[in-house]
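Input/output pair, single chain:
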Amino acid sequence: MITGTNLIKQFATSDGGVVRALDDVSFEVATGEFYVLLGPSGSGKTTTLRVLAGLEDADQGAVAIAGKTVFSPRDGISVPPEERPIAMVFQSYALWPHMNVYHNITFPLRRGIRRVDRKEIIRRVERVTELLHLTEHLRRTVAQLSGGQQQRVALARALALEPAVLLMDEPLSNLDAKLRAQLRLEIKALTKEIGITTVYVTHDQTEAMVMGDRIAVMADGRIRQEGTPTTIYQQPGDLFVAKFLGDMNLLTGSIEASPSSEANVTTPIGKLSLFRRPNTPAAGTVAVGFRPEDAAFAHGPGDNVYPGQVTARHYLGDAFLYEVQCGPFVFQLRRPNWDRVEPGGSVFVHLPANSCVALADDGTG
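Output:
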């Protein structure tokens, strides 16, 4: 449904230089897929979305939507936003405060090149307002609505255009945590129900994991890793991805060269075994990472078991988060409430070999 090829975009800086917002970005989004662009501020994710929408022209590269090239400077093609088969939901909602809900939803259908006749407008409004539970609010002004209802209006306006592609730029960032969690599930379910292809921008790792069929983690104008939430979380491609997508404990060590699928790493807390993955360095200095929920308390010494001391314990409701000092490292362990250890207590920490990843040490671990 969407193809971005070798996209490059540069912006001038105030000191006369240039910053490369997109640095040879390429990706494909399948029909009906929910594709998430995830990254910190300045990573290039919103610029990518704006290039897809036609709100920005890339300096180089090409964009195709629904089998049609909509941007290619080499071929002299730059289809304007209103002629692309897309709709966009902005972070600010971009609603007209002097209009009621009905007129906000129908405005693009009554004006411009996407206008349709009155009977079609009624059909589309009935469909989207029923899907988004807005039917009883049609005559209210947007000022009378809650933040969550305003977000639904913005989404209804986009869906009423019946686009091939829905673009969403951090649409939940202005909402409180509970409402965000609720709307994540609603938006994901709604896009699946109607089968629309979605590209969603966020800096929120949980949001990306919950909503995305695939995630592209971006930094410095590049896609650092692309894959399913499970793959990226459990098999990060580099240290940036490992640390950005969820909490990750890290310790440094030296991995031994070996032809076997199991690798041994010498660390300051002792020998550690793990299974090699495609991106595991063959030998040399590495950063070994594991997630807080993957480590456990052990009853005594053993393979991949290290003595430590609990320095702090934090109650999370469904679990405890422990801080454990093991040699020069302080690890975080997330354990269920029944697996309780008092702060100050001595423990043994088990790091399962299949949950540890060894990554090239870029000096930031």
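The chain has a mean pLDDT of 92. Residues 73 and 213 are 31 Å apart (CA to CA).
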